[in-house]
Design goal:
The complex is a heterodimer of chains A (139) and B (138).
Chain A: E1 4-16, H1 25-32, E2 41-53, H2 65-76, E3 82-83, H3 84-87, H4 98-112, E4 117-126, E5 129-133, E6 137-138
Parallel strand pairs in A: 1-3
Antiparallel strand pairs in A: 1-2, 2-4, 4-5
Helix pairs in contact in A: 2-4
Chain B: E1 3-18, H1 27-34, E2 43-56, H2 67-82, E3 85-86, H3 87-90, H4 101-113, E4 120-126, E5 132-135
Parallel strand pairs in B: 1-3
Antiparallel strand pairs in B: 1-2, 2-4, 4-5
Classes of the chains: A alpha+beta (139), B alpha+beta (138).
Chain lengths: 139, 138
Amino acid sequence: MSNVTISRRFDFSSSHRYYREEWSQEENERVFGLCALPNGHGHNYTLEVAVTGTPDADTGMIINLVDLEAAVDGVLIGFDHKHLNLDTPHFTERIPTTENLATVLWELIGDALSSARLSRIRLYETDDLFVEYYGESAA
Amino acid sequence: MNTPVVHLSRRYVFSASHRLYTDHLSFEENEAIFGKCANPNGHGHNYGLTVTVKGPVDQSTGFVMPLEQLDAAVRQYVLDIYDHRFLNMDVEDYYDLVPTGENIAKRVWERLAAPLGGALHRVVLDETRNNRFEYTGE
């Protein structure tokens, strides 16, 4: 049977701040610009979750969308209407850039999808800026 | 420690006119192939240009590439040269090349490959809402 990819879109809204405590204020402002402002700022994020697999012979489904939604919603509840730096445990060491947020979501959603293969995360921070993560890593 | 490799994409817009016509063919042949796109004085589009870079996420900044660096390269090497121009007459890329969406995507790739230091992964050119061209350097 052929592999097919299904993709589902989700929305969540969060705030964040780009700042490294071990750097000076000037260095943070030079590297992160407006994103280093003390009180943070927010975005409406759009997340596309892609799952790849062979459609089940009986149901015709790669994954039941109800299960996909439940898995992703269960992850996003930890991010939606939260301050990523202050209200989640994921960004104590890492800056909550779109890149890092995508890899965190990959790990959490991948764990939540017990039976299906997560193949791509696409995360829009704004309409004209997005990242994609396929689980790749470099040594 | 393994570093995640992430694709970062940014969408830009530019407006330009073009004419699909080649001197290597007769006027009739041009009209047969390119239709109204061969009209002598050209026509224009609002082009959407999505540029994707790929690389390891910097452990300190969390960036694949600082957006200012990506924006500056696209602005300097593409947008400043293409925006509000007649591509056939004003941009040397098309003095001897028909500025189809395919060729524009390829030329944009060639313009950005060196400035982006090997991180360039994909160029997507939207000519209209319905026409899209992708080039990955193949």
